[in-house]
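Supplementary notes for students who missed Thursday's class. We covered one full example, reproduced here. Read the sequence, then the structure, then the short commentary at the end.
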Amino acid sequence: SGKTALARTLLTSLAMHNRQGDVQLVLIDPKGRGFAPLATLPHVLGGVVSSAAAAIERLRAVVQEMERRDAQGVNRPALVVAVDELADLIQTGGSAVEAMLTRLSQRGRESGIHLICCTQKPSAALIGSAMKANFPVRLVGSVAGKDEARYATGLSDSGAEKLEGKGDFLLVAKGELVRFQ
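Structure (token representation):
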């Protein structure tokens, strides 16, 4: 199991243990396969989005919701925006996608909007430093080398390049590392 299986499990757990009125999900999956099994959950708003144009529209709506919540001082229900293949979405959606995701990562938590983003290539060229800085918890699977490990975890010598894959992950929060499967 890899990053998509972990994200699916996390989202399924949120749906199973929370009422629809408490947690709602926005699913963006450029490949259209990773989050497809979750499309029928009652918590999912508007199905799974797979095209860049539809993702831009959905993200624009989420940013507007964030601004509405900020103005009204509301932060419920929790809204979880899950993006599989983040690097692919940024490449196809361009600066509009990156700007909206950065804005949500910076200001969304206060209004009850949270991001879960998955990518195979956590490189500085694809994921801006402003967005990366606003992900307080990272789950990192096997990466190709020390440079990718350092960028993905934010720590030197994390050992992420030595992970076996097969569901092997590091949890990074507040500079602490926890290895789990």
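Commentary. The mean pLDDT is 92. Strands lie at 23-28, 44-49, 78-83, 113-117, 137-140, 169-173, 176-180. If anything here is unclear, bring it to office hours.
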